[in-house]
Structure formats: C-alpha cells, structure tokens
Specification:
alpha/beta, Gyrase A, domain 2, Four Helix Bundle (Hemerythrin (Met), subunit A), Rossmann fold, 3 domains, flat, GTP-binding, nucleotide-binding, GTP-bd, cytoplasm, metal ion binding
Length: about 450
Amino acid sequence: MFNNDTIAAISTPVGKGGIGIVRLSGPLSFQIGKKILNLSSPDNLLQTPSHTVLYGWLFDKEKKILIDEVLVTVLREPKTYTREDMLEISCHSGETVLKEALSLCIKNGARIAEPGEFTKRAFLNGRIDLSQAEAVLDIINSGAERSLIAAAEQLKGRLGKKIREIKDSIIDIISELEASVDFPEEELEFEKRESILKELSFQVKKIDFLLSTERAGKILREGLTCAIVGKPNVGKSTLFNTLLDEERSIVTPIPGTTRDFIREEFSVDGFQLKLADTAGIAEMDDELGKEGVRRSREQIEKSDFVIFIIDSSREISDEDIKIFSLIKAKEKIVLLNKTDLPKKIDTEILSRLINREKFTEVSLKDKKGVDEFLLEIKRIIAKNNSGGFSGITINLRHKSLLEKAKEVILTTEKTLEHNFSEEFASFDLKEALSFLGEITGETYTEEILNRIFENFC
C-alpha cells in the first residue's frame, strides 16, 4: 500500500512571481539533488546537516546548461513534514523554470507526486492523524479568518485527542467485560455493571458534543450561501457590487440586464459568505432569459438565506408578490431600496406582504443604510452559528462515523441492561472502536485515503 519511493512536485502555484518551490521527499532526495544542483558550499550535500539552506544553481548536466539560481533547503528525517528525507528547491517563480526543475527531478529518479501525497506520507509515517490531514486541506481552502482558525485548531490535533479519550475509555470497558468472559467466576457484579453503564452514557454525551459541532464546522469551512432576489432593476447588481466593492455585475437602467446568476465570495465578521446575484425573476420571452430565471429559482432553493430587494420608488407589483411567495419559507433580509427617490410604495402594504417582518431602508446609490444592512447579515450569521466555535469542529465524514459509534454504544447499553452476555457487549464495543479509529486513521482502507487525498491539489 505504501510506496517508499521518492516523489517530487511543484509545491507553489504555477505562474509568474518571486519564488517557486519544487519539493522532493523520499530516500533518493539528496542523491537526486546532488545530480541536478551545482552548490557553492564545500560540504557534500549528502552530509549537510538538517535544516540547512544552501546557495547554488540548478544545472542540467545532460544539456550542460544552467537553469536558475536557487536556494536549497536540506531536511533530514524524521524531523520533516513527511518524516522522510526532503529537499526543497526555491527557484524564481515562472512556469518554464519550475517545469524544468521538476523535469530534472523526474529524469534523475523521482516520480511526480499524486495529489496530496506529501500530506498522505505525513499521515502514513505517523506524524499526523487523518483528521489533521483533513485540516491541512481546510487551511488551504479557507476563505475567511474564522475558517482558518478552526482548521488550525484541528491541525493541532484537538479532535484526534478527544477521539482517543473516548477510545481509551471504551478499551478499559472492553477489558473488564472480557475478564468476566474469560474468568466466569469473576462475573460482573451489579455495581460494576452500573458503573460501566454510567461510563458508556458519559462517552455518548462526549460524542453528542462532537456531533453538535458539525453545523458550525460546515459554516466555518463552506460559509453561508445567500441569493439576492427581486424583480428586474431594483438594485440587485448594485448591492452585489457594493458588497464586493467592485463592478462584478453589470449595472444599467435597463430591466433584465443580469440574465444569469453571478456568484462571488466575500468575508463578513471573519465568516465566508457566498453571494449570488440572480437574474430578475420575471417572465422572459427568449430561451436565454428563461434559463436564467430557472437557475435563479434553483439558486434560491440552495441558499441558506436570501436578500429580497424592493424598489421604494414604485408601487408593490404582482411580481414582488410572486417573488415573495418563492422565498416565504426562507431566512431573509428585506431591503427597501432607492430611498433617494420620491417614495411611491405603501409601507403598510409592504409590511402585510412580508408578514410584518422587519425591512431595512437603503439607498444603494448613495450608500445610505448599508451599515444597518450589514448588521442584519451579521445577525443571520450569528443565528446560524448559535452553537459558537468551541475549538473543535467535525465534518460530514466524522459525523457519519460518530453516529455509527454512538448507535453501537447505545446497543451495548441495552445488552448490559438486559443482562445479556458480556461477550456480545464486548463485540459491539470493538465495532465502535473501529468507527472511531476511522476518524483518526488508526483504522483505514485505501479507498478512504483515496477519497480524502484526491481533494488535494
């Protein structure tokens, strides 16, 4: 399963920039480096102390040409990212130079790393557990400050520590149960059985706490999705551009300019918000317009909440009523826009339409009322994150495994309560251990690893 060869990859985004890094990991890292590097240091690369940076040139001996001026970081196992010998070649960043550097590594004995393989080796070599490996990907993908903080906490191993605490308790219980099976004369006394049931109940509460963090974890990792809705030309694109502080949507006085939804991400209070500017939901004659409306409705269904914009310079229309009927059940912010123009809307009719829910008056043109509107967004974020961040969060994979472990433990409790064989209880708890072990990777299959690491770049 574990291929102990030497791998290489470009570890920085390919493109023009100051620094680009090609990374090697495996037993031949230094030998390959010796073949492709012309170093100024008199020390032999094979004997250079760990965590040393050397200056030199990347050199193609076959073509007898210099490729680039480089700095080379020597990292000796076990105190490296992968717990293997590693070499990091810092080049000037550019697509050609990085590809040439990688090509030289491959020609001289390395192979191209698979997605996430450096982190996979860190896991397989015991430096991190599987939940920490997932945290590495969360750090890479973090779109806001709070998601980054949550991922960093998981990388520290807090979730793994909690899982191991639960496992240790279950292992102790299994030992007691099996002792009574192996030595029938030591049959579980009533008090001992009650003590085990109490401990199992305590571990279920720990699992319930971890399960309660899944919603917060999802919000931190993925953010909340918001659709901006309203009839054509009420200011949806203006709001979209105001929030992003750039002209991402086309703003014109012509109704129906946005023919499809446009999606962008931005940060509010350290949380990621995925914003979709939808096409005005109106009857369109052409196929392109109809498709835009269909996608807008789909976006509304998928969103966590919506921003419903109404034009205060026009009376409530049948279209406003129709749109509200589509979002009636959704969490929403209602904006009364264009307050800089003479007001024609009847606010009493509006209030009845939106079931007396609060609405915020704004002039997006003059940026008036925007701060109050942002407070409404923060309110919705806080409501969706009511559990807060405890320093530990789980993802859907963890949730599924924790639920399975909990179900098995609850079955074990019933087994003991009805005085069934301790052997059955012990067997069930071993299954719970297996589910918990999958979270940290103490038990795993190649399929599980592939599913996790294929998401790395």
